[in-house]
Write a structure and sequence with these properties.
InterPro entries: Znf_SWIM. By secondary structure, this protein is α+β, with helices and mostly antiparallel strands. The protein is built from 12 helices and 27 strands. The strands form 7 sheets. The protein has an 8-stranded antiparallel sheet with strand order 11-7-8-9-20-19-18-14, with helices on both faces. Strands 2-3-12-6-10 form a 5-stranded mixed sheet.
């Protein structure tokens, strides 16, 4: 399993301090991306939180997810949350060590009272003393929030520095990015008022079996609430591992509503879903993978988009047009780029898998942010995508009408059938998942070759069969391999004179979807 060591550095630890007229919450930032390029410690906001207790509880919930492994929870993980300034709001994101739970706290304009909100993305320090201090906030006395260095602080790293180093596997990076693309397929399924939300969440089982998160449950809207159902009927919502919603307990007493999002029910397999607590001036959203034992990186629903040259080129163009918008408008991007709306959406999927956009289910729209990790590296190293490219490069694919034949290295022959654009395969992967976790490597390879053949024919370099021999039997066609749009390189901390280092040897898991 490929992994890298992620290092983040702060000028000082984040802290909650007493001050005349209230308290001051200073959240320290690491090196990150801004509209003007990389900055060592970008500053995004200075002002007051209008609901201090709610904000403190929401930040703790995001930190809880960052420090959790819901599958085999006795093994701890810890990685600082990501903060994004979108000009009109602050977003705090985290991803569980098991790769199956994504959390985001959106602090909207009504939740903030102060200076203009900046633009950019970086890590924010959330340490144990800060967590303890936030948990003791019990009143709504004025709370001043600063995200980034103090105006009077020396911004160069020539003083004490707190540095944390965490190993990041590719599949964890892929999961963090792919959770956004998965959420783009969700619709609002139910909205519960505060009392029903409290009743429902408190009724969920909290125990686990053998140290593992519980299995999937199904619920359906019933009146103003939700009721359990034994099977996934139309309109049902999947709750895969109810105990993975435990972080919502932090904000439950402040919630004014609970919204549930999910994809359409198409069978009896477990589905991903998003659960959003509506708070005064804020929203806390937890997105759950379909199974607690595997993370988002194994879902593979975006592999088709990654396998095309067109989407790669479009993504490079769309990336230039993004400007840290809190809500990406597909129509505006289409007009500015000259691309059809469907190609803009495909480009956003591509950018999502490389960590360059997130998805807000409440607004049904992507938002611009640049993860402070090399998520594009994980995209390039996707096991199924790599294997498919290898099959194409080895000439292992041949086409005969709607049937594609793939000969593996061990001599096994797999047949891929194209039924109105939907591919099925004779391999064990397809037999097990039936496309529920995306295409297998054989189907991906066949799709690459078909697209390459169509491109050659369109350019006048081949026959209608795409192979130039006119005999109705297409030979292997190897298109140019899709180039991943280069994301901004992972931020690296600047040198420091004096450092206090914390080496966090943690484990991050999640199915890799081979």
């Amino acid at each position: 399993m490929t992994r890298s060591l992620q290092a983040v550095a702060y000028t000082r630890p984040s802290a909650l301090e007493s001050a005349p007229g209230g308290r001051r919450l200073g959240l320290e930032t690491s090196r990150g991306s801004t509209p003007t390029g990389f900055e060592d410690h970008p500053r995004f906001f200075a002002g007051f939180l209008t609901s201090p207790q709610v904000a403190a509880a929401g930040l703790l919930a995001v930190a809880d997810v960052a420090a959790a492994r819901y599958y085999q929870p006795q093994l701890r993980a810890s990685l600082d949350p990501v903060v994004t300034g979108n000009g009109d709001r602050l977003r705090f994101e985290s991803f569980s060590g098991c790769g199956g739970v994504y959390a985001r706290l959106d602090v909207l304009a009504p939740g903030l009272d102060g200076d203009e909100i900046g633009h950019g993305t970086t890590n924010v320090d959330v340490n144990n003393p800060l967590r303890e201090a936030l948990s003791r906030i019990g009143t709504d006395d004025p709370l001043h929030l600063r995200v980034g260095p103090d105006e009077m602080a020396v911004t160069t790293l020539d003083g004490p520095v707190v540095e944390k180093k965490v190993p990041l596997p590719d599949r964890w990076l892929r999961g963090f990015a792919e959770a956004q693309v998965t959420a783009a397929g969700f619709d609002l399924r139910a909205e519960l008022p505060a009392a029903e939300a409290v009743r429902f969440l408190r009724s969920l089982p909290r125990g686990t079996v053998r140290g593992r998160s519980g299995g999937a449950q199904w619920v359906v809207p019933a009146g103003r609430g939700l009721r359990p159902t034994t099977r996934p009927v139309p309109g049902a919502v999947c709750l895969p591992g109810p105990d993975r919603l435990i972080a919502l307990q932090r904000v439950l007493r402040h919630a004014t509503a609970l919204r549930v999002y999910g994809p359409p029910v198409t069978g009896d397999t477990a589905l991903a879903g998003a659960w959003e607590a509506v708070l005064p001036g804020m929203r806390l959203t937890l997105t759950l993978s379909p199974d607690a034992s595997r993370g988002f990186s194994g879902e593979g629903g975006v592999l088709d988009a990654l396998a095309t040259d067109e989407a790669a080129e479009d993504a490079e163009l769309i990336a230039v047009l993004l400007a840290w918008e809190p809500r990406v408008d597909v129509g505006e991007l289409a007009a500015a780029s000259g691309l059809p709306a469907e190609r803009v959406r495909a480009a956003l999927v591509r950018l999502g898998t490389s960590g360059r956009v997130g998805y807000d289910t409440a607004e049904a729209a992507y938002f611009h942010r640049e993860l402070p990790y090399d998520a594009g590296r994980a995209e390039r190293h996707n096991p199924r995508l790599r294997s498919a490219h290898a099959l194409v490069g080895a000439g292992a694919v041949s086409l005969d009408g709607a049937i594609g034949t793939v000969t593996a290295d061990d001599g096994h022959v797999h047949r891929v059938r194209d039924d109105a654009g939907t591919l099925s395969c004779s391999c064990l992967w397809w037999a097990k998942y039936r496309g529920g976790r995306g295409p297998c490597k054989h189907a991906l390879a066949v799709r690459m070759v078909r697209r390459g053949a169509r491109a050659e024919h369109k350019n006048g370099s081949g026959s209608p069969n795409g192979n130039g021999n006119g005999n109705g039997q297409a030979t292997t066609t190897t298109p140019a391999l899709a180039q991943v749009p280069a994301p901004a390189p992972a931020p690296a901390p600047a040198p420091a004179v004096e450092r206090r280092e914390e080496f966090l040897e943690v484990r991050f898991d999640g199915g890799d979807g081979r």
